[in-house]
Amino acid sequence: MNTIAISIKGVSYQYPEQESIALNNVSLDVYKGEWLAIVGHNGSGKSTLAKMLNGLHYPSEGTVMIGGYALNEENVWAIREKLGMVFQNPDNQFVGTTVQDDVAFGLENNGVEHGVMEERVYASLEKVGMTAFLNQEPHHLSGGQKQRVAIAGVIALRPDIILLDEATSMLDPLGREEVMDTVRELNEKEGLTVISITHDLEEAAKADRVIVLNEGRLYTEGTPQNIFQLDRELLNLGLGVPFAVQMSQLLTDAGLHLSQRHFNEEELVSELWTLNFER
Amino acid sequence: MMEKIIFGRYLPSDSVVHQMDPRAKLLFIFAFVGIVFLANNVMTYALIGAFTFLIVFLSKVKLRFLIGGLKPVLLLVLFTFFLHVFFTKEGDILTQFGLLTIYKGGVIKGIFISLRFLLLILVTSLLTLTTPPISVTDGIESLFGPLKKIKVPVHELALMMSISLRFIPTLLDETDKIMKAQRARGADFSSGSISNRVKAIIPLLIPLFVSAFKRAEELAVAMEARGYKGGEGRTKYRILRWSMRDTMAMVFLVVLSAALFILRSY
Lengths: 279, 266
Description:
The complex is a heterodimer. Helix content of chain A is 38%, strand content 21%. Chain A is of the alpha/beta class. In chain A, a hairpin with a 2-residue loop joins strand 9 and strand 10. The longest helix of chain A is centred in the middle third of the chain and has 17 residues. Chain B has ten helices and two strands. Chain B has a two-stranded antiparallel sheet with strand order 1-2. In chain B, a hairpin with a 2-residue loop joins strand 1 and strand 2. The relative contact order of chain B is 0.14. Chains A and B meet through helix 2, helix 3 and helix 4 of A and helix 8 and helix 9 of B. Chain A: Its main location: membrane. Chain A: Keywords: ATP-binding, Cell membrane, Membrane, Nucleotide-binding, Translocase, Transport.
């Protein structure tokens, strides 16, 4: 569990022609096989960090090591094979005219042979449960389905790490769940390292570890449990604590004995209605 | 109205024509455009006409559907016909009303030229009806491949074509959304003078352009993140397969042009 997949040391970044510093001396490690959530409100530097991990920006200061490669212009293509990225807008990352063409796009770019390509396209679509849509055109798919295709396109390249840059923020609740379930399965079954960059704390609650960024700096780090304990502090950072967490806090304050602080509503509800069964 | 226009539409089916290699179909059409001009008398027109209907039959596209979809173009054909009827002064005089004199040569020429026009339209619309746009793009990329040697960016052009095709429905959806949004703010697209209607389109086009550029930028980033670095060292997922059927079509075409050549001088 504790092999380091990505190591970021003292990284700073400033956008050209801008005064504020987007990332200010950030250091963190990402471990192999974990699910890490990086949260922060707009302008906290989380998107800059995401782009940096894929070599779309290079650090002004400090070093980034990904899967044994130092991030620089020479290694960037090797790094992009190790780390796949899913973006926010489902439409604007769909390159192919059909589902299978889109999944194959990354493989084509890397010069994978045709026979292997066909196998991998099918296998990746199977992993995200989209094989029935092989020949569908993007405008016939829902947002959640498009994001699952984007995930399939990423895993077809067999990366070690998948980076979700606000990948669920444009989806409806159902699509969000669809995508998160797919990611969880990949994380558990395939041992894929997941980094999810989000401002949605409910999504962050699913992670093993949460890192909070604020104004370009690393604010705090911990398990979702620890992070949600910060409560007020999070609100001050512009991050809303999920409803279920707030509710269980209030119920505990009111003298109800709950087994834990719940992250999702379903768990909370089922504890509430079974609370008095043992009496 | 829009449903009836068939130009550029694809009708999925499993006919022989559908299964042909897009390259064969493209070559066929390039050649056909030339061959049509070989026809110069009743025999040759009958032959090439019969040949066209054979292809339509093989493609399993319903003739009624085809004619229905070509209605707007048929008007143009009719226009060409009358242009020739009225303005060609050859052969015997058929009838005369007032200033207008109709010659036999004019009628014949009118029929031949509009027939030629019609055949060309039929065959080219069959191409798009029986070939998915992406296959047409693949076919073009492959056929023009040799031009890469003289630095023509064939791969880039083909990719641009396929991305444009992929984004047409997305942008249409977006236009619809913006239109609704502007209507909700009181914009009126469907009444008033022509100049007012044209002006009403501006608040539709500007947001559409802005968002299209934004999309393009995001797409470029996503493509780079997925390892796109130009056509060099790239493999293809879609493979074109030239089969016996395609060779046969080419042979058929040669036989047809030979027959036309011989019948021409009768």
